[in-house]
From TrEMBL:
Keywords, ordered alphabetically: Glycosyltransferase, Transferase
EC number: 2.4.-.-
SUPFAM superfamilies on file: Nucleotide-diphospho-sugar transferases
Keyword Glycosyltransferase: yes
Primary enzyme class: transferase
One Pfam short name: Glycos_transf_2
Name by which UniProt lists this protein: Glycosyltransferase, group 2 family protein
Length: 232
């Protein structure tokens, strides 16, 4: 039952080692927010853990990937009339204590707010951060705007963007969409946050996948977005 105007969307794929502590923290310490878990076709005990604990969960029959799972969450937010929705990792990296700061930026008129590791903190010069740096450069080059942490998965969306993302499959929760929105005058801001290491399991982004992701985003921002139609 809807009890808040803000929804935490938690896409989860094979997160049996962390999902319970993540959701229990929200329930026990941040009960002013609603949440929904989108189980993205997990092959482990993620779904069973959620159902056994009575969590609010939507089970997808197959793995749709982050974009499909998150859109499912935004469609839920749209159908239930939420004013704001925040993308939140199931692996324990994101901290709910920062949600209020993101919400303040939405209330100021921003349509998207990114929980950034590098607003007041310096981005480390490491190979791990190379993709983040290049994507940030591509966004700056094509929009004239600075996004310090474009690969952050902690993003809050206004009611307007909830509707747009829920109804258009072409809007994925990725840096190229952030770039596209900036080019079309959508106000986006960043808030400094701290992130933890994942609590359990392994990241989907292996070294090779990280390289492919970086190249795909870089090319998409620099070239493909030029041919993207508004609202598509």
């Amino acid at each position: 039952m809807k009890s808040s105007d803000l929804l935490i969307i938690i896409p989860a794929y094979n997160e049996e080692g962390s999902i319970q502590s993540v959701v229990n923290n929200i329930i026990q310490n941040y009960s002013q927010y609603d949440y929904v878990i989108i189980n993205d076709g997990s092959r482990d005990q993620t779904s069973e853990i959620c159902h056994n604990n009575g969590y609010n969960i939507i089970d997808l029959p197959v793995n749709l990937g982050l974009a499909g799972a998150f859109q499912t969450g935004l469609l839920y937010a749209y159908q239930y009339g939420y004013e704001k929705a925040v993308q939140f990792d199931a692996d324990g990296q994101h901290l709910p204590e920062y949600i209020a700061a993101l919400e303040e930026e939405i209330d100021k008129g921003n349509k998207m707010v990114i929980g950034s590791r590098f607003v007041t903190e310096k981005r480390p010069n490491s190979f791990r951060m190379l993709g983040n740096t290049l994507i940030s450069f591509a966004i700056k080059l094509t929009t004239g705007k600075t996004i310090n942490d474009p690969t952050s998965g902690m993003r809050m969306f206004s009611k307007d963007l909830i509707q747009v993302f829920a109804r258009n499959i072409n809007y994925g929760p990725e840096p190229d969409t952030v770039s596209y929105l900036l080019r079309n005058g959508v106000p986006i801001s960043e808030v400094q946050v701290r992130m933890e290491e994942r609590q359990a399991g392994e990241s989907y982004l292996t070294f090779s996948r990280s390289i492919k992701y970086m190249i795909h985003m870089f090319v998409s921002i620099l070239f493909i977005q030029n041919f993207r139609e508004r609202g598509k």
